[in-house]
Amino acid sequence: MNYQLKGNVPFPIALLHLDRGDRAQLEAGAMIYHNGRVTLEGHMNSNGKTGLGGMLSALGRSVTSGESFFITTATATSDGAELAIAPGNPGVIQALTLDGDHQWCLNTGAFLAMDSTAGYSMIRQKAGRALFGGTGGFFIMATTGTGTMLVSAYGDLLPVDLDGSTDYVIDNNHVVAWESTLDYSIEIASGTFGFTTGEGLVNHFTGRGRVYLQTRNVEALANLVKPYLPNKSSD
């Protein structure tokens, strides 16, 4: 993927440079502008299924995981095409490499764009993990293929490397992406009911690989501003 990151953190954009016939897959609603040499086509985030089954599959993931019901394919109609995209959250944009040694699992909302030579599947988590939901709910995005993928974070994005000798426990609202070589479990942080320290649920990672974490918590921001929002209930 030929791209430039433009603008300043916390509000950068990614400017994609495409030649005729080049394609990129985008998070629905990520486009800011293009130079008239790009066509956009939306399709259901249905994991390859079509018809009613595909619609129900996409709808189910949208409801249970918060993933977009649609995903967008951008195709360059001539050389010199430019397409600017941005995530909805303030923070950084990071490129991740996909190849035979590096595939990734993504938290809800992390995906921004990827090469057409790469792919993904929405995989169901184990029942215990799904019930505790903080890392993509019932489904997470798992990558395949080769190329470049752009992900976004709220705040900054920091790598944590596991060498197999030390486990890491990360608040699941801070987890953005992790290598598929890692195993993980979603656990209660501490306390009789699990929330006495205010930490809630955590991801316990084991094995060898990299985890990317975001330095800010969207849920904490929402809880901070919620008391100041107007009450929409009718009198």
Note down, in words, how this protein is organized.
This protein has 235 residues and is mainly beta. Helices cover 12% and strands 46% of the residues. It is built from three helices and 19 strands. The protein has helices spanning 51-65, 127-132, 218-225, and strands at 3-6, 13-18, 23-27, 31-34, 38-44, 70-76, 81-85, 93-98, 104-106, 111-115, 118-124, 139-145, 147-152, 157-163, 168-171, 175-179, 183-188, 201-206, 208-214. It has a six-stranded antiparallel sheet. Strands 11-12-9-16-19-14 form a six-stranded antiparallel sheet. Strands 1-2-7-4 form a four-stranded antiparallel sheet, with no helix packed on it. The termini are far apart.
